[in-house]
Amino acid sequence: MDFYFRPDLRRFILSDLPEMNLMVDRKDLVNAYVPLAGYINMLATLKRRSSILGDVPYLLGITGSVAAGKTVMSKTFSEIFARIFKKNVDIISTDSFLKKNNELINEGIIDRKGFPESYRINDMMNFLKMARLGIKNLKVYEYSHDVYDVTDNLISIDSPEILIIDGINILFDFNVPVMPYNLMDFIIFIRSDEGCLERWYIKRFLDLVKNAGSESFYSRFVGMDEKTLKNIALNVWSNINLKNYRENIIKNIFRSNAIIEKRCDHSIESIYFRI
Length: 275
Ligand SMILES: Nc1ncnc2c1ncn2[C@@H]1O[C@H](COP(=O)(O)OP(=O)(O)OP(=O)(O)O)[C@@H](O)[C@H]1O
Ligand SMILES: CC(C)(CO)[C@@H](O)C(=O)NCCC(=O)O
Description:
InterPro entries: P-loop_NTPase, PanK, PRK/URK. This protein has 275 residues and is of the alpha/beta class. The chain is built from seven helices and eight strands, in the order ααβαβααββββααββ. Helix 1 (7-19) crosses helix 2. The longest helix is centred in the first third of the chain and has 25 residues, at 26-50.
């Protein structure tokens, strides 16, 4: 498919968006992100216009493996919705609904972080149900990769028109009557080869160690040589995140509405729509 853009929009895409440091290829912005955001924006506008509940948000889920680039993609879509389509957008991560580390340790499941049993699923479902109804001024605790735990910082969600929900667990089978994916309006799955995912995970692990301050969980690794660090990262990747990817994430890809297939350099290879 080819697209053409109004001149003002073209200028916006080619000069303003790249200045935002979104880490996204210009060609992908023009050919993929903006048109897909335009389509989702249209669905979001139609939902709000036809809802008998009034001003309810459109829930956009962004899912895929750990380190697939969900955070970067959520930010990219959020900037496009806000700046081009003039929508109020909030982003939350389902990491906010992880049990705290001390609870995971007490339950003996600290090495199962990200698996279904590591979430406070009832809190997550209550949040999603309230968000869907358009209830104002919701708050969730922020998860920090750096601290490696749910923190005491509160994030406010106040009547967005589009609420982006970034999480590995959106398509999971939880032991609850209504699943998270039942409450989303549109779900994007970011897919890549396992080799690329592993590479991105290891790179991010090294970056977290490199930038670790005294509060960081990763400060314990500072000073180790790169080979040792890569081995630690590979071990965590293979025994936890890849296992979770195979057991709970990729097998439910068919529940998503669109699949964005990324190459190892993060550029987009193709987009598939479920019709
Ligand atoms: N478009 C991109 N261009 C370059 N690097 C990218 C891009 N998208 C993601 N990355 C890099 O890939 C790594 C993983 O990205 P990100 O942190 O967004 O993943 P994630 O899916 O949110 O991970 P998690 O599930 O652990 O929260 C990071 O190091 C990030 O900088
Ligand atoms: C917080 C999650 C589960 C998802 O973002 C992930 O980043 C994670 O921490 N997984 C556990 C194993 C690890 O990477 O340390």
